[in-house]
């Protein structure tokens, strides 16, 4: 550790570690402060790699393979006999993946000459040309570092609610739900957002009876209404009991059960579970991040106030990821980290926030980019849409993945693509086609004129684009051709 750096990054998650690497590539001297201890060992990678995106996807993949092997192979003529799941081995595989990836970041730091400082970082004073950062190591040794630039990237933590306090045993947050040692027979989930649906799906596939409570009156309120409606039917068919407009008013542990009291339209009911997962969202994590004289301006919501380039009110101080406005997404944080570093280096980096992709990694996946049909209408566009069901897609049928659809949203006057929405196996990859098209300001006609390989699921994108003008080839659409 040195006394002075070109850049100090506080936080080693997807925003912080990516920013540190990019800064080192540009020739800056860099220190990254990260306090996380995971399974008794210091760890880079933040929530995403340790207890979020990556471990949850590992469990989602294992649980999907288990369910497919147990229930979906007969139609292919494949007989397997009795199929069992070893939860301990599943968790062990998840841990091995986490260790490989977080260890990889440590190797990238060493290869790029970045100092990893294990402990707490606090911005003491960001007003001068040399910013002051207090570093408290794990052994409580305290020192002050100066830096020309600082990036605040401390991420977020799960929201705790008073009516369902986590006890890290029967009532857990999203982190605890990644480490169950056995499949609960009855599982309750508070929150039908991304995390609730993914974790509920994991344990439902492994045999749990799952009830998901959602306080909002509509399901997947931020998604396109057509896609949300289709997804609700899909989850019901899969066995998830999703109860919208239902508020949990009390959850308490009684012996080896969790008793949940909920309320819907003024009527209360009680249900018992073996485990309860609380995943009602996340909040910015700023403990010890800012000193009293740091000079950083906050928003009314308590987030760090930044401009479109993630610059705070102080020269040379940037904040990224879950600490600032916008969706709490790892890929958004990473790109903000790169943008911040390149801006402080004098480059004109910029992010198009209109093309940030959202993905729910259930099976099939739910993903979207750009505007929903309702958002486009509310924004004053004359909207046209096109949709195509995967039941008519040859590749989807051939691989038993014919559940879902693709939808495009466009400006009827200019033909410009405004959004793409998908429910499909690999939907998160499919909507990248929409993102790229939107970045190049493509029209629906552009997509119509492209040649999509056959047979691929991506052909459904082509058909959806054709559908926007009433002329899909592989579906009958009662719409006047334009």
From TrEMBL:
A Pfam family hit: Pyr_redox_dim
PROSITE patterns: PYRIDINE_REDOX_1
Cofactor note: Binds 1 FAD per subunit.
Reaction catalysis annotation: N(6)-[(R)-dihydrolipoyl]-L-lysyl-[protein] + NAD(+) = N(6)-[(R)-lipoyl]-L-lysyl-[protein] + NADH + H(+)
Coiled coil: none
Disulfide bond as UniProt keyword: yes
Primary location: cytoplasm
Location of this chain's protein in the cell: Cytoplasm
NCBIfam families with a match to the protein in the record: lipoamide_DH
Miscellaneous: The active site is a redox-active disulfide bond.
Name of the featured protein: Dihydrolipoyl dehydrogenase
